[in-house]
RNA sequence: GGGUAGAUGGCCGAGUGGCUAAAGGCGACAGACUGUAAAUCUGUUCUCUUCGGAGUACGGAGGUUCGAAUCCUUCUCUACCCA
């Protein structure tokens, strides 16, 4: 299977320009994907483009990861119905550093290899270009008619808030990136999410008109969840790659709780397992879905890929403690079990209040597990709170020393999936 | 520059002087069922609360009124039409 066939089978190709497959089969091809510095960490939505680069490199081609130091100052209008807020320079630099650090983990930058990955920042070539130069050398090659025909622009022109000149010009900058990489690194292919198609084709057009060259492109589908929700969002917000922002346990849980439908799609995209193995897994899963083989395999592979083996093991340990033998009393957990619950939010609480005994509503609010007494009361009335694995059915319940595990812990669960450990100081 | 229609809770959208913290839908959270699944059903969803209430809120500011999301003035923004 060649690279394009492989990616197609995995469901990672949405649109592809004619000739792309032939180009990739012909020679080692340099290809790039741009990453926007909108935050100081990438989130799992960026994993798909990262994996495209990894697949590309594995197939012997040369990946370029571009961070948008210049384009990040402008803001991509694609996929947005309103104008972006401009990032200030300090934040931008912080974001660039964070993203660079993460990207460097996933690709092989060993310069001995001819297809070593390269990281570039488009600020490096944009900083020296004056506005006049840009208008004369680049703007002249592309008509406004062409630019306005792009979906991302058309939607905004027809939409409520309009589009600023700044964001309108964005596609020219991204187009220039591609042109620059084509000229300086012989980069002939750009990949990205399907929302990038318009920006990408402006690049190939610019290369054709300005350099008389031919460049190629393909995009991957934007992921959605089977329930139509945004991929990569949970009740806590984005699922980040940075373990400081999203702990490996939560990260693991995200994949483990995928629906069957999503798991079938995602296992092809987010693991490197071959077609045979995946077919077997799907068959096994359908035979006994309650084992959730797909979810477990998916969660394992991707957690190891992003956080490493150790973090994966810790995440499964914590998962065991919290979700396995649900009938086992919380008292059966050892001090080590409780202390070792990686990724479970921990709260301290003063012992004196426990000695006196405190009502459950105040306890939940004062620890910070719930934002206020009102919320705590509502959650209790909904039956959403368990203490030491036993559902609390009275708002009046008193927390005192008899509730302590090993004289100093209380295991609180909000719903089934949100555990908190309160440690009595 | 002239005219017309708009701006309501995370989003969509009803409401045109008191019965409105504001219908309905979506989303989100929780419960039941299950497999930490889906579908379905139920509850919650401005903030705080001693669960009795209290406070803030229908683009901004001011006004009329016992009482305003609703009426008036003005400002800001958006769409459409005319120049």
Describe this structure in words.
- With 425 residues, the protein is an alpha/beta fold.
- It has three domains: 3-220, Rossmann fold (3-Layer(aba) Sandwich); 233-324, Tyrosyl-Transfer RNA Synthetase, CATH 1.10.240.10; 330-424, RNA-binding S4 domain (Structural Genomics Hypothetical 15.5 Kd Protein In mrcA-pckA Intergenic Region, Chain A).
- The chain is built from 20 helices and 15 strands.
- It has a six-stranded mixed β-sheet with strand order 1-6-5-2-3-4, sandwiched between helices. The protein has a five-stranded mixed β-sheet with strand order 9-15-14-11-12. Strands 7-8 form a two-stranded antiparallel ribbon.
- Helix 3 links the parallel strand 2 (30-35) and strand 3 (62-67).
- Helix 12 (248-256) packs antiparallel against helix 15 (293-307), helix 13 runs parallel beside helix 15 (293-307) and helix 19 packs across helix 20.
- It binds one RNA strand of 83 nucleotides through residues 160-162, 226-229, 235, 253, 256-263, 288-292, 295, 319, 322-323, 326, 372-374, 377-379, 381-385, 395, 414-417.
